[in-house]
């Protein structure tokens, strides 16, 4: 699926955050696995837009493009690169205003 926003250079920070959440929802591992892994996004980068959000959207889209024939693999790769990377997870959680810890999803009996 292709979303062409190349003529829309006025996307707000909130709109960019929603696009980020669409391609990589960091709120839980399950949400990341269920994020859209088939969307290909084309947009003009605005000088006013948040570069950090644009970078994370680009990374998520790149993972999807590299695994275009297998969305499940793309989902697993996003989990590995974002949920299991504490620095990236903290950045994404801050951008998406997610305050819960990854460890909330782990049953203490498994530790």
What report would you give on this structure?
The chain is mainly α and 111 residues long. Helix content is 50%, strand content 7%. α1 runs parallel beside α3 (51-66). The longest helix is centred in the middle third of the chain and has 16 residues, at 51-66. The N and C termini lie far apart (40 Å). The mean pLDDT is 82.
Blueprint (SSEs and pairs):
Layout: E1 2-5, H1 13-23, H2 29-34, E2 40-43, H3 51-66, H4 71-83, H5 86-95
Parallel strand pairs: 1-2
Q: What distance separates the N and C termini? A: 40 Å
Portion in beta strands: 5-15%
Largest sheet: 2 strands, parallel
Low-confidence stretches: none
Shape category: globular
Biggest sheet strand order reads 1-2
Q: Which structural class matches the secondary elements? A: mainly alpha
Overall strand count: 2
If you compute it from the alpha carbons, what radius of gyration comes out, rounded to the nearest whole angstrom?
14 Å
Count up the helices.
5
Q: What is the string of helix and strand elements? A: EHHEHHH
Q: What do the pLDDT scores average to?
A: 82
Helical fraction equals 40-55%
What key phrases describe this protein's structure?
about 110 residues, mainly alpha, two-stranded parallel sheet, 2 strands, about 50% helix
Report a brief summary of the structure:
This protein is 50% helix and 7% strand.
